[in-house]
């Protein structure tokens, strides 16, 4: 009967092309507006490291005091002194520290000019903590951190640019006039938002191109290419060493903790550390520390742009209006067939068959609207940049999941919208229709 009802539905749609076109257009435009804004919202608000986000925590320690804080919150990164001390304490399963670098890379041969590559100075735990996949080789070892080894990990994209995608493990790369031995090449890895470096505003930045040991970068005096927050009332002295060991915050620190008990224990360790700094005379205020997991950190930093939420709500409202119009059109369409319904009911068709017939017909309208919505969604992706920043707009794309969701939403929404018109149609009295017609 399903195939029969599909044929009846298609025949009915062809019988009233203008009415059908209005319904299809209403569904198509409504679902397209919703899917375009949903694709952006999904990209900026998704969990960047599913399955592990509740085990990764960023560490904050107040080194400024309450008079310089924003609503009691510590600075959004740590000083070099605090970062290195906490990592050296090894109180977590894994711990990593990092800062942005942008060295000048000199390609092999004399045919290419140097270029700037974006990367991070970090430690060996970074790769295991954040589940970084590798195409060739692997991360450097903890002994390389301790020995300040001149090693590096490069990305798939940089490997393509420098070595045409070949296995470059063991080869050398020159950065800022220093030579580094390549120990690993990552597969494409670009979590969005880039949760581990929100401090420097890189939530939706370009993919990372290289990584090198934090200790080595400090030894060769590689400057930070990210944010350096020294505060408006902090005297960090003169010279690099004074800055390095001063109170400027520029080093995000992350720790991996297996469960809530481990998180509680580490929070107590942080409080004790801050109390020790207070007793040593460095801090003149009560310990003020924070330990936030990935999702809490994203919420705290307001990573999801407010315009994405607003545009999604507006689009959903527009879709609801389209559905209300579709309900009216379906009601008009179904009630014009009251005579047909009366004959079917007089011949013994139960009401459930009327429901089946008209809901299937509504489903065909939804499918047609979904196909139109797909075309409009693909077209709308080209104009996302008019509403959002380029780095966010480029995250929106039409993939298989969005295609399936567009069709499913269109069909399900139209079928739900058809329930009231179908209920009215199923209540047609056969005797009255036979007498009047």
Written description of the protein model:
The chain is built from 17 helices and 13 strands. It is of the alpha+beta class. Strands 3, 4, 5, 6, 7, 8, 9, 10 and 11 form a 9-stranded mixed sheet that branches. Strand 9 (172-175) and strand 10 form a beta hairpin. Helix 13 packs antiparallel against helix 16. The protein is elongated and about 95 Å long. The two termini are 27 Å apart. The model has no long low-confidence stretch (mean pLDDT 87).
Global geometry: elongated
The helix tally amounts to 17
- Helix and strand run: HHEHEEEEEHEHEHEEEHHEHEHHHHHHHH
In total, how many beta strands? 13
Unreliable residue stretches: none
Return Rg in Å. Answer: 30 Å
Helical amount: 40-55%
The largest sheet is: 9 strands, mixed
Please report which band the strand proportion falls in: under 5%, 5-15%, 15-25%, 25-35%, 35-45% or over 45%: 5-15%
Chain-averaged pLDDT? 87
- Termini, distance in Å? 27 Å
Helix/strand/pairing category: alpha+beta
What topology does this entry show?
Elements: H1 2-15, H2 17-45, E1 56-61, H3 80-89, E2 94-97, E3 99-101, E4 104-106, E5 115-116, E6 119-122, H4 125-129, E7 134-137, H5 142-146, E8 151-154, H6 156-163, E9 172-175, E10 178-186, E11 210-213, H7 214-219, H8 240-244, E12 253-256, H9 260-279, E13 289-293, H10 294-300, H11 306-335, H12 338-346, H13 351-380, H14 390-393, H15 400-417, H16 419-426, H17 430-436
Parallel strand pairs: 6-11, 8-10
Antiparallel strand pairs: 1-12, 1-13, 2-12, 3-6, 4-5, 4-9, 7-10, 8-11, 9-10
